[in-house]
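[User] Could I get a sequence and structure tokens?

[Assistant]
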Amino acid sequence: MPYPHVPFYTLTAIALAVFAWGFGSRVAFWLKVRGSAYAPPFSAPQATPAHAISLATFLADALLQRQILRQSRLRWAMHMSIMWGFIELFFVGSLGNFFMERGWVSISKDTPWFAALNESAGLLLMLGVSIGFYRRYFLKPAHLRSQGEDLVVLTLLGVLGVTGFLLEAGRFLAITEAAPNAPYSYVGHLLYLAAHRMNAGWLGVYRVLWWLHAVMGLGLVAYIPYSKLLHMFSSPLLIATQRPVQTRLTSAAKVPATAEG
């Protein structure tokens, strides 16, 4: 383990507290503004066919972002790539590492499915970031307004993705010889193969990379409720929890340009 427990977990607690405060404040504001217009999608007294349809609509809008797909396939691909890539890397990757260090799960960083899943999520995140840069700074649709925050968020996500792959390569380099299952971490392993002949203090490099990646990742988690990233994660849920269905469709079709991710 390349980090002291106390500093890392202290930073983690601070980041999660800042996230919880910001997210809670936003939710409280939304509920206050919505008032009686807000209704949880599962609030029907009994499970009726209409309620089942509401649940299906909720799942389609929240998990598959169907309304965004109807607006723009490219924007949908960006949202899905960033959202699911980030969710996997944080909840599966980071929490998986936390559990394995305590022996709560019988996997390791080099368990084939776990390694391949994390690498694929990293590539998915990078795909979403690439689409985001392409839409905002090359395609430039007339309705899309780019601000300084957009560049900061996309750059931070991109740097996190790149340092994640470098970190995996650095782990292999730091232990001198990659594990037999290392090829399942296919991006990190390719970087390892390209760099392993270089004579460098890889253990020191790995420690620097680890802390850089950890601090940026925790900083991003804390920043989410105060950035446009919150819109990317929350807008499908907000659309799905509006009623009636016609209201959902109308609101989804009229996303303000300044709020679009």
